[in-house]
UniProtKB/TrEMBL annotation:
Keywords recorded for this protein, A-Z: DNA-binding, Transcription, Transcription regulation
TM segment ranges: none
Protein name, UniProt field: Winged helix DNA-binding protein
The HTH marR-type domain, residue ranges: 247-340
GO molecular function: DNA binding; DNA-binding transcription factor activity
Species this protein is from: Pontixanthobacter gangjinensis
InterPro entries: HTH_MarR-typ, Tscrpt_reg_MarR-type_CS, WH-like_DNA-bd_sf, WH_DNA-bd_sf
UniProt keyword Transcription, yes or no: yes
Pfam families: HTH_27
Gene3D superfamilies in UniProt: Winged helix-like DNA-binding domain superfamily/Winged helix DNA-binding domain
Length: 343
């Protein structure tokens, strides 16, 4: 059964609207009981109205609501605890405003939720490099409401943290592959690695120790030399093999975005190529908003790095971290070339 079918079995869109609002209605208050304020900026009036209605239903207090021009013009205004922006089309003025808003969010603690289009994603992504925003790509209404719930979860001292595990799971499981994400997040430590190695492990699969102890009588750990990255032609062949499955089966049956992202970036690193966030979303094999969540989590876990374009500060790329590159090299060295062809 595909994940799409499974998700539909869990909750319908109508059920989602009701349950998500019920779970957040009493939670959208600060520790003093004051409703959190949200500002909304969107040029598409129907999108702006929908976001406003959902924010009110979730218990938020409305701050500034208007089109993008109101965010760009005039003196700085109080934006509240969260800012929701819809900008499917961007120009130089909007991008400059996003950069300014990114800095303001860092200084004030406001949470940003920015929806955009695939065409504008690279530009928007490059502008928002400090505030850790939620980026949504052509989202459905349900995805926007889930983003509101995630805003609440990120607020310090919020009563949403007192919801039962079942209530939290109801919100979480509505996002693509979030069951796997939630399972890994629960096992991850603060730095993306749990006591047992966590969801993302960077160590070699086998460690060697010196036969004799050191002068203080303790054994010495001998770290194996770093293996080279695999031949990028091999990695590209593996990627093509994985993509070929969609010809015969539902592609979502085999969706494994974290691994597809790692494979694509491994090949790119070996080729000395740079990868844009849009290209990486395509390589992940899942919808862009889902891919962005994976990329964000993998950056936080230390697997990926955001890299500024030194020649054009308006652009940014995604690359493997040195630790992740070493782990991929060790992985391919461990399984061997023949086995790798079957990955």
């Amino acid at each position: 059964m595909s994940r799409v079918t499974h998700r539909a079995d869990i909750l319908s869109e109508t059920d989602f609207q009701y349950q998500a609002t019920e779970l957040t209605r009493d939670a959208a208050n600060d520790p003093a009981g004051v409703p959190l304020a949200v500002s909304i900026f969107a040029d598409r009036s129907h999108i702006r109205d929908t976001i406003r209605d959902d924010a009110l239903a979730a218990g938020f207090r409305l701050g500034k609501v208007g089109d993008i021009a109101e965010l760009l013009d005039g003196a700085a205004i109080a934006l509240g605890d969260a800012v929701l922006i819809d900008c499917p089309v961007v120009d130089a003025a909007i991008l400059a405003s996003l950069c300014r808003l990114d800095n303001r969010a860092v200084n004030t603690g406001a949470k940003l939720v920015v929806s955009t289009s695939v065409e504008a994603l690279d530009d928007v992504f490059a502008c928002l490099d400090k505030s850790d925003p939620q980026l949504l790509v052509e989202p459905a209404r349900g995805e926007r409401v889930i983003a509101l719930g995630r805003v609440l979860a990120m607020m310090p001292g919020m009563r949403l943290r007192e919801l039962s595990g079942d209530d939290r799971l109801t919100l979480i499981r509505l996002t693509e592959q979030v069951a796997q994400i939630a399972d890994r997040l629960e096992r991850m430590g603060a730095k993306g690695q749990a006591d047992d190695g966590g969801a993302f492990r960077f160590e070699s699969s086998k460690q060697a120790f010196a036969g004799q102890g050191a002068e203080d009588g303790t054994a010495q750990l001998i770290r194996k030399p770093k293996p080279p990255l695999p031949d990028p032609r091999l990695v590209r062949q593996i990627i093509r093999q994985r993509e070929a499955r969609a010809t015969f089966f539902d592609a979502e049956l085999f969706a494994d975005p974290a691994w597809d992202i790692l494979l694509d970036l491994t090949a790119a690193r070996a080729e000395h190529a740079r990868v844009s966030v849009t290209s990486l979303c395509i390589a992940s094999g899942v919808p862009p908003t889902t891919a962005l969540r994976w990329i964000s989590q993998m950056v936080e876990a230390g697997l990926l790095e955001r890299v500024k374009d030194e020649e054009d500060k308006r652009r940014a790329f995604i690359a493997l971290s040195d630790r992740a590159a070493e782990a991929m090299g060790r992985y391919f060295a461990e399984i061997g070339t023949d086995a790798a062809r079957l990955v």
